[in-house]
Each structure stands twice: as C-alpha cells, then as structure tokens.
Amino acid sequence: MMLLIACGIDANDKVVPIAWALVPIENETWWTWFLGYLKHCISISESEDYIFISDREKGMATAVPAVFDKSIHLHCCQHIADNLQQRYGNRVRPLFWNACRAKTRQLLAEKMEELRAQSQLAFNYLSNIKKSTGLGLIQPTLNMAMIHQIS
What are phi and psi of 25, to 5 degrees? Predict the structure, then answer.
C-alpha cells in the first residue's frame, strides 16, 4: 500500500496535512482519483490557481493538470538536490542551491555556469528536466529555497 498526502501551508507558514489516502500503487490513475476527491471535498473553485510540488513520482505530473487545469506542477528542489548529489557528487549540491536562491536572471545564469564548470553532466541533467515542471521553477521570480517537501 502507498500513502498519498496533500498538504498546505497555514497562516503560521507551517505545513498542514489536508487529505490522505492509502492506495495499492502510486500511479497516474490513483493520483487522479485522489486529486479528484481532494478537489470535491474541499470545494476548490475552478477559478483558483494552485501550485503542486512533488518529488517527481509516478503519475503526478499528468494527474495534476487533468484535475486542476489552471494549476502549476513543480518538482521539489530538495529531491532534485538529492538526485544531483547521488549521481554527480557532493560538490554540485551547494552549487544547485546557490542557483535556486538566485534573485535575478543574471545571477541565476552565473550560478548555473558555476555548476556547469563543476559538472557538465549535472548541468545537462538539470537542463533535461521538463521546463514546465522542473527548470520552470528555476526562475528568479520564484524563490526555490522556499520549495521544500517535508519528508
């Protein structure tokens, strides 16, 4: 059995569980079912926009737009940082976080070049993440340091 959880942020900037479900397998079908019931149970309006952050697990990238067509789905930076470290070593992780914290496009480009200088393979890995869900979140308008998933 797999546990699916939807969390939100409360007025004190704390993570709060909103809904959970035990499902036999984590896939697009079960994420779509879970998100559909979440939408129904908490009376989410079609006009409202939401941001969903996941750890790049199976099915969520297609389930979110299927249920919440005006929402944004992004990947958790903590999980991307973990993947970078596992695949390309400890040196790229802090360089990735420096890029995440960039406040301007110019600074982002500089930090990404520093990462590329350290590891072309790590840079390629980041470049290959679908922009609508991955590197779309590496934008100065979105403080990626704030995008963490509680494990």
Answer: -155, 150
Residue with tokens 């993570």: 15
- Residue-wise pLDDT for 99-115, tens only, equals 988 888 889 889 999 99
pLDDT in tens, 58-95: 788 889 889 988 888 888 888 899 999 999 999 999 99
**Angle (nearest 5°) at CA 127 between 122 and 131:** 140
Partners of residue 6 on adjacent β-strands: 19
Provide the H-helix boundaries in 4-76: 28-41, 60-67
Secondary structure letter of residue 3 according to DSSP: E
- Tokens coding 50: 């939401």
- Cβ-in-10-Å burial (0-12, 13-18, 19+) of 151 comes to exposed
Enter the pTM of the model: 0.68
